[in-house]
């Protein structure tokens, strides 16, 4: 599969020179009205060692200018156009071109692909008690923490909005010297220490896209949004006793690897046309992080899934994994719609989001005696009494839209109708905290936010600007029914309090993006789910918890929800596993996390979705993470760089493209390379029509043992495994098995996917993977 892309796709046969290039072109508005766009022109990886003297790196940059000069008229023009030159792990450059120039580059025989530079979003909707909880002053610690030394000396990088260095989560108290292998640096506006050892920013792709001039607001590694500090502290924040959000949720905060070193790579900026983080900047940051010496890269960003050769995150993350750096990314917040999962490259650990067993409850009481559990982090009502209730639709301005008013949109509410009352709004369209702001602006004393049907039972704790509570869909229906049943409805919102041991938990968040994988349906994504709802973590003090201009409050800790929050939970666990098992590959670490996960909640029943209906692997992947068990998985499904190259061959890329992608001129696609034999820790079969056999290999990472196979067949599918027993005589030994799947003569009613699982066990370890099959007639 050889592809070229320039706005739309171009394909033709190509030859290649020894120098490989990667070109980015960024959308701007030109005074001459020539259309400037952002493209990636990809030639593959470097074919020379990455540790080069500066003179050699300068030579690479010169070769980039020479290549571009042949299209833009001169070296001078090329130098002015180029704003990044990727010179180490990723070979290429980023430049501003018009459409004609980009089209000519797309025709060049040495070019693999030309495609628009993607703008991406942060995956937050705007707290799991990671592995530590303070109860009655007693700190309960994870055994994995003890075994892994809290992730000490592992270096975790975060691609995000920067860092708020003054946060106590980034204190270096109790730390020794910075590891000698570290080559990173800190921008002058961030005072780094022995904990926070790196802080850099990458803005040239963003500035080229927007056409904005660079100024001090774009030349900073500081976090003015809160997202970066939140995700970074979730992954590796230090222990902070007494953390809370306006007095609620008090406890000891910490990240997954609380003693790991951390580095912030700021790649996201104020949104433009819905995009905040651009591939040109992301790739520059990934290349820098690899060269700096990080062990883990955490990326809570993403966009629509696409072909791997035109996806900046897929290209950059491959280079990371190839260099032994585990890459963790969020699945996206486009759920519960099927087929929305992003960051689907098989070398990425892709993370969905689920709830936890803690809530910040704010009960809603009605004058008819009904009471409903809601959630909030807002202040209490001014008086302990029943207040008049009004549906936001009834509070609309004259000649206004009742639909807009019900959603509490700007300008839709009449203060004369709303003032002094509790306003009942519907979730959807605009931000939850924005609804509260509009209610407050109209004079409402409080707000009840009712879930729409799509949100189901997922309720989010926000620090609203007025007393508020968010309730689920069913309870919201009851509130609206009450409003319609009486001429004088009244109600009350109780002050929020923390509650633990909530059931069911975990359940899938409605926003968490779902499979199937739209790029390679034969690879299950997401891989895993982790807590991503109402997560307490560090926050910037440069803005308010709602990010509303009218909100002047500040808090060092805040709750956020999204796969942006679940991603760093896994990144923190990866840091611990990297410390405990430094010899493990990124694929072995992912396998350990996936095969030891669980698919049952704290009721010992199957996990459910936001509507409390049974969830499946398209929402949770292999299941909900269990960090302690991941430390000792027994067996792993390992993968090497060569296996990933075989994967690319199996899905249709030709040999030349794969060679350049991996900078391996000796690699040859195996004849008959088959995706069914790709050693992924899940088995996914789209369009099963006849008997097929898949092959997998297991590596023993525990003591000698004998493992037996147990499986649960997907409905309507016959499954057989051979051999049914694997005897491992030593650590590191690898054994192969095959699974044969055949559709049964009598198929289940309906159509679509069915699910099962395979578990290998020695009675001490349970190595489980999901089986996903689409039955076709």
From TrEMBL:
Positions of the Inhibitor I9 domain: 38-123
Active site: 160, 227, 564
Superkingdom of this protein's organism: Eukaryota
Entries under InterPro entries matching the protein: PA_dom_sf (IPR046450), PA_domain (IPR003137), Peptidase_S8/S53_dom (IPR000209), Peptidase_S8/S53_dom_sf (IPR036852), Peptidase_S8_Ser-AS (IPR023828), Peptidase_S8_subtilisin-rel (IPR015500), Peptidases_S8_3 (IPR034197), S8pro/Inhibitor_I9 (IPR010259)
Domain spans labelled Subtilisin-like protease fibronectin type-III: 677-773
Transmembrane segment boundaries: none
Domain PA: 394-478
UniProtKB keywords: Glycoprotein, Hydrolase, Protease, Serine protease, Signal
CDD domains in the record: PA_subtilisin_like, Peptidases_S8_3
Limits of the Peptidase S8/S53 domain: 151-609
Family: Belongs to the peptidase S8 family.
Protein name: Subtilisin-like protease SBT5.4
Phylogenetic placement of the source organism: Eukaryota, Viridiplantae, Streptophyta, Embryophyta, Tracheophyta
């Amino acid at each position: 599969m050889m592809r070229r892309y320039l706005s739309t796709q171009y394909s033709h046969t190509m030859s290649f020179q020894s120098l490989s290039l990667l070109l980015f072109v960024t959308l701007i508005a030109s005074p001459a009205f020539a259309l400037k766009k952002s493209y990636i022109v990809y030639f593959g990886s470097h074919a020379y060692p990455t540790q080069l003297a500066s003179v050699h790196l300068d030579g690479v940059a010169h070769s980039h200018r020479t290549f571009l000069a042949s299209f833009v008229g001169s070296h001078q023009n090329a130098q002015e156009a180029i704003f990044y030159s990727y010179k180490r792990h990723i070979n290429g450059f980023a430049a501003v071109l018009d459409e004609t120039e980009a089209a000519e580059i797309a025709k060049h025989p040495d070019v693999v692909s030309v495609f628009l530079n993607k703008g991406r979003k942060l995956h937050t909707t705007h707290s799991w008690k990671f592995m530590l909880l303070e109860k009655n002053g007693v700190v309960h610690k994870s055994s994995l923490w003890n075994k892994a030394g809290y992730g000490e000396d592992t270096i975790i990088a975060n691609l995000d909005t920067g860092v708020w260095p003054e946060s106590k989560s980034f204190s270096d108290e109790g730390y020794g010297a910075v590891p000698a292998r570290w080559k990173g640096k800190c921008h002058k506006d961030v005072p780094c220490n022995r904990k926070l050892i790196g802080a850099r920013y990458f803005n040239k792709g963003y500035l080229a896209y927007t056409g904005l001039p660079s100024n001090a607001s774009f030349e900073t590694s500081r976090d003015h949004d809160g997202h970066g500090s939140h995700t970074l502290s979730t992954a590796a924040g230090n222990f902070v006793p007494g953390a809370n959000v306006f007095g609620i949720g008090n406890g000891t905060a910490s990240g997954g690897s609380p003693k790991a070193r951390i580095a912030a790579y700021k790649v996201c900026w104020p949104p433009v046309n819905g995009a905040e983080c651009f591939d040109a900047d992301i790739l520059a940051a990934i290349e820098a992080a690899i060269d700096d010496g990080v062990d883990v890269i955490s990326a809570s960003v993403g966009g629509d899934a696409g072909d791997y050769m035109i996806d900046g995150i897929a290209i950059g993350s491959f280079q990371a994994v190839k260099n032994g750096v585990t890459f963790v990314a969020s699945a996206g917040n486009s759920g519960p719609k099927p087929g929305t999962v992003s960051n689907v490259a098989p070398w990425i650990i892709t993370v969905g989001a689920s709830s936890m067993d803690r809530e910040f409850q704010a009960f809603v009481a009605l004058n008819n005696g009904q009471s409903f559990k809601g959630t909030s982090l807002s202040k209490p009502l001014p008086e302990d009494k029943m207040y008049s209730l009004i549906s936001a639709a009834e509070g609309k301005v004259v000649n206004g839209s009742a639909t807009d008013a019900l959603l509490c949109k700007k300008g839709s509410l009449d203060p004369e109708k709303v003032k002094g009352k509790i306003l009942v709004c519907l979730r959807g369209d605009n931000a939850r905290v924005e609804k509260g702001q509009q209610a407050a602006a109209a004079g409402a004393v409080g707000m009840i936010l009712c879930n729409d049907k799509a949100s189901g039972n997922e309720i989010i704790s926000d620090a609203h600007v007025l007393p508020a509570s968010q309730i689920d869909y069913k309870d919201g229906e009851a509130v609206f029914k009450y409003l319609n049943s009486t001429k004088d409805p009244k109600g009350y919102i109780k002050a929020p309090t923390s509650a633990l041991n909530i059931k069911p938990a975990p359940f899938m968040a409605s926003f968490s993006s779902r499979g199937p994988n739209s790029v390679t349906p034969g690879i299950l994504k997401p891989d895993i789910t982790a807590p991503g709802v109402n997560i307490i973590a560090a926050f910037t003090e440069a803005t308010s918890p709602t990010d509303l201009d009218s909100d002047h409050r500040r808090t060092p800790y805040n709750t956020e929800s999204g796969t942006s929050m679940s991603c760093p939970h896994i990144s923190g666990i990866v840091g611990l596993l990297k410390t405990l098992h430094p010899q493990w590959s990124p694929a072995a670490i992912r396998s350990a996390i996936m095969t030891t996960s669980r698919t049952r909640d704290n009721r010992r029943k199957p996990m459910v979705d936001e509507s409390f209906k049974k969830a499946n692997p398209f929402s949770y992947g292999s299941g909900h993470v269990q960090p302690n068990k991941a430390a000792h998985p027994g067996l792993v499904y390992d993968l090497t760089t060569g296996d990933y190259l075989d994967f690319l061959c199996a899905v249709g890329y030709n040999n030349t493209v794969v060679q350049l992608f991996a900078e391996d001129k000796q690699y040859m696609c195996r004849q008959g390379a088959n995706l069914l034999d790709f050693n992924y820790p899940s088995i996914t079969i789209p369009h099963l029509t006849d008997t097929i056999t898949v092959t997998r290999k297991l590596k023993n990472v525990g003591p000698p043992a004998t493992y037996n196979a147990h499986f649960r067949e997907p409905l309507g599918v016959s499954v057989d495994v051979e051999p049914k027993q694997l005897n491992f005589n030593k650590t590191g030994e690898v054994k192969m098995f095959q699974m044969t799947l055949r559709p049964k003569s009598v198929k289940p009613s309906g159509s679509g996917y069915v699910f099962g699982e395979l578990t290998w066990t020695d009675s001490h370890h349970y190595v489980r993977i999901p089986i996903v099959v689409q039955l076709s007639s």
